[in-house]
Write a structure and sequence with these properties.
This protein is α+β, with helices and mostly antiparallel strands. It has one domain. It is built from three helices and 15 strands. The strands form three sheets. Strands 3, 6, 7, 8, 11, 14 and 15 form a seven-stranded mixed beta sheet that branches. It has a four-stranded mixed beta sheet with strand order 2-1-5-12, with no helix packed on it. A four-stranded antiparallel beta sheet has the order 4-13-9-10, with no helix packed on it. Strand 7 and strand 8 form a beta hairpin.
Length: 252
């Protein structure tokens, strides 16, 4: 197994003003994609200064009402990342859906988030995260919570679809607020452990300043890596058994 070193990308001044503007925009609006690589026997994720949190925003109008495909997931060689060709990547849902609106409160109106995985249903079922859903580990056979697989050059980029439900013809202000849940990433590559947990946080209809406070609140509920060590280790062992069975079946 090849091990890829995760390292910081150095931005060179001669790239010019446009690159600086894009970098500034990323800093102001959060780290857009969940970027990761293999490092020291586990999936290592690049976190921003905001902490272990990634942001998206549900549209409040138009054909994209209550929809977003951000944040995406990526591990690309040109950014100093990359995985092995063919490696499967899935996510593990480690919490129920949480809701913040000037403080954590019960999720309103039976709201839930639907994630359309890759490939979409019926190949890989949608994942539903609600106020009462339990931990949902990803798997490879059958495919659950699947993000994608490494290409021939080791690159991976995948944008899942996130939908806030229920959805009407127009935005329901009773659902406005900040929604989030905890995830980690796993791979079927033998010997590579799951990532540390992180939060996915989505804005629906609140001002940017208020959303920023909500993001900080979600960052504070992400447990220390040791908090999920035992659970995720058991999960990874199960993935390893599945992968070994799959390899054996191919060789028969």
């Amino acid at each position: 197994m090849k091990t890829w070193n995760l390292h910081m990308i150095a931005f060179i001044a001669v790239i010019g003003l446009n690159a600086s503007v894009f970098a500034q925009d990323d800093d102001e609006h959060g780290h857009s994609d969940v970027e990761f690589a293999y490092e020291d026997g586990k999936i290592a994720i690049e976190f921003s200064d905001e902490g272990a949190v990634f942001e998206g925003e549900f549209s409040t109008e138009g054909v994209d009402l209550q929809f977003t495909s951000e944040p995406g997931f990526g591990s690309e060689g040109e950014e100093g990342l990359g995985i092995n060709a063919g490696d499967q990547i899935v996510y593990n849902v480690l919490s129920e859906l949480m809701y913040w609106n000037d403080g954590f409160k019960p999720v309103p109106g039976g709201a839930q988030i639907r994630i359309v995985n890759r490939p979409p249903s019926p190949v890989v079922p949608d994942t539903i995260i609600g106020a009462d859903t339990a931990i949902q580990f990803g798997s490879f056979v059958p495919a659950l919570n699947r993000i994608g697989a490494g290409e021939a050059d080791g690159d991976l980029h995948s944008d899942l679809d996130f939908l806030l439900e229920p959805k009407g013809d127009t935005a329901d202000s009773a659902l406005f607020g900040v929604y989030g849940f905890l995830l980690s990433l796993s791979t079927d590559e033998a010997g590579v452990a799951a990532s540390d947990p992180f939060a996915m946080v989505f804005n629906f209809g609140v001002e940017e300043e208020k959303f920023a406070i909500g993001v900080g609140a979600f960052a504070n509920v992400v447990p220390e890596p040791s908090g999920y060590t035992i659970v995720l280790s058991v999960c990874v062992l199960a993935f390893g058994c599945i992968r070994r069975r799959r390899i054996c079946s191919k060789n028969q």
